[in-house]
Design a protein that fits this description.
Blueprint: E1 3-6, H1 17-27, E2 31-35, H2 41-54, E3 58-65, H3 73-92, E4 97-102, H4 114-134, E5 138-142, H5 154-164, E6 169-174, H6 175-181, E7 195-200, H7 220-229, E8 236-238, H8 249-266
Parallel strand pairs: 1-2, 1-8, 2-3, 3-4, 4-5, 5-6, 6-7, 7-8
Helix pairs in contact: 1-2, 3-4
């Protein structure tokens, strides 16, 4: 089973997006996952060259569509069209997986009927995912932790998948997010056969953060065991963010690789 890393590990640090690819390779990661935002033509070429040089495939790319349920129809339309352009970028990087992240209900589920906003999200995701599918790219929906996020639990992402009803749209689980909202390892089975990708990190309590696995309180070994029990064969993606000690980010990334690879090996999930 592959162990990949997301480039948001470098946010707020002195490691740029090209150097980060080389660091990931040196640490031993099997694949590299990108955000499609703020990519100039020059940066895209430099990143693609670095991936080719290191032999790291682009495991997936993340697209955040917080305005997908905006009150204004024109903004929703612009968001869908923008997301399709991000899919084109992911395709150019050779990726076959997109992580799509919807946002929060407008005005905390007030003023605008939440059922209407839910339908906007379903329809928008369908259109984006269908476009991606045409390029050979599968979509994984990620739920976030805010109270009014349109999907914010295993149960709600399952309902969203039911309403979308497309086999190429599945879930992206983040174990920090699950822990913060109170979804324990036993909830993993609810997405058996519907899981595209997994984000892996730790946190210090019931507050969103992404620290190296083993440095916090998330029962990550139990979550991994739950994945194994449902026959999950996809990648484990290290997702570290906003290190409080930016100068030590390479140590964070190395620590994350070593602790996760050991957990996976102990559970028979990695050679």
């Amino acid at each position: 089973m592959d162990l990949s890393i997301s480039e948001n590990a470098w946010w707020g640090t002195g490691v740029d997006r090209v150097k980060g690819i080389h660091v990931a390779k040196e640490c031993g990661y099997d694949a590299y996952c990108i955000f499609t935002t703020d990519l100039t033509p020059q940066l895209k070429r430099s990143m693609r060259d670095a991936l080719k040089e290191t032999g790291l495939p682009c495991g997936n790319f993340t697209v955040v569509v917080t305005s997908l349920i905006d009150l204004n129809e024109e903004i929703r339309r612009l968001t869908i069209d923008w997301a399709k352009r991000q899919v084109d970028i992911g395709f150019d990087f050779g990726s076959e997986k997109m992580v799509l992240v919807p946002g929060e209900y407008v005005w905390e589920e007030q003023e605008v009927d939440p059922k209407v906003q839910w339908r906007w999200a379903v329809d928008g995701i369908k259109e984006i995912a269908e476009y991606a599918h045409g390029l050979g790219i599968s979509t994984g929906l990620e739920f976030e932790t805010p109270k009014h996020n349109i999907i914010n639990s295993v149960e709600s992402v399952g309902r969203m998948l039911d309403d979308i009803g497309r086999r190429y749209v599945q879930a992206n689980l983040d174990f920090v997010h699950m822990y913060v909202v109170g979804d324990g390892p036993e909830k993993v089975k609810d997405l058996k056969g519907r899981l595209l990708n997994v984000h892996f990190a730790d946190c210090k309590g019931r507050k969103h953060a992404h620290y190296p696995p083993g440095s916090g309180v998330v029962p990550l070994r139990q979550y991994l065991a739950a994945l194994k029990s449902i026959g999950y064969k996809g990648a484990i993606q290290m997702e570290l963010e906003w290190s409080p000690e930016p100068a030590k980010i390479v140590e964070w990334v190395t620590e994350g690789y070593e602790s996760t690879a050991k957990m996976m090996k102990d559970l028979g999930m990695r050679a």
